[in-house]
Amino acid sequence: MLTLTQIVFLVAAAITLLAALRVVTSRSMVHAALWLIMALAGVAVFFVLLNAGFLAVVQVAVYIDAIAIMIIIVVMLTQRSMGGQDRQKNKSWWAGLIAALLLFGGLVLMFTEAPLLTVLAPALTMGPEAMVEELGLALVDVDRYILPFEVASVLLLAALVGSIIVAWPGRKSQEQEDES
Fold first, then answer.
1. Is 2 left (phi over 0), alpha (psi -120 to 50) or beta?
2. CA distance 70 to 159
3. Residues of the chain above pLDDT 70, percent
4. What is d(CA 135, CA 127) in angstroms, rounded to the nearest whole number?
5. How confident is the model at residue 122 (pLDDT cuts 50, 70, 90)?
6. Where are the beta strands (DSSP E) in 86-173?
């Protein structure tokens, strides 16, 4: 018999997987961005189920509110500058497919070799305030998570700069002059 928590997890997992699949299969960039918001909301549900309320709030506040809204605004700006073309074709789609398959294979290999699949995590004995403090210290500790934290911040900065370049107002006129 499934418990309520297990049912919520299974429903959230199904919705998150469906939304993630629709992110990469949607023909419209606006629809893909909206599906991304749904997938990120599913991840926030997972954090709630793990009793990580702080991370759930950060997931909603940072990813859904800030990044997803930025994506939607940039998509709408680029749609206007591209003349309303619905489909975008990329001649090197096969390179992206090969890279995705290699990444997937590497991740599967990494997870099958990881000892974490057989070891259970220790039970948390500290209160919520101590957990948030421990998380904050872990994110800036040189021996723990500072490198992934900094890589994520550089990735977000690159996404911001890329969105500004794509939505730059003078870009369309320069491309038209090059074609003439």
1. beta
2. 10
3. 76
4. 12
5. low
6. none
Based on its alpha-carbon atoms, the radius of gyration of the chain, rounded to whole angstroms, reads 20
For residue 163, give the nearest of 66, 54, 60 by alpha carbon. Answer: 66
Query: How many whole angstroms separate alpha carbon 37 and alpha carbon 32?
Result: 9
Q: How far apart are CA 138 and CA 132, in angstroms?
A: 10
Measure Cα distances from 110 to 37, 107, 148 in Å: 28, 5, 17
Q: How many other β-carbons are positioned within 10 Å of the β-carbon of residue 68?
A: 19
22 CB-contact burial (10 Å; exposed 0-12 / middle 13-18 / buried 19+): middle
In this prediction, residues 150-166 reach a mean pLDDT of: 78
Find the range with the poorest average confidence among 39-48, 115-124, 171-180: 171-180
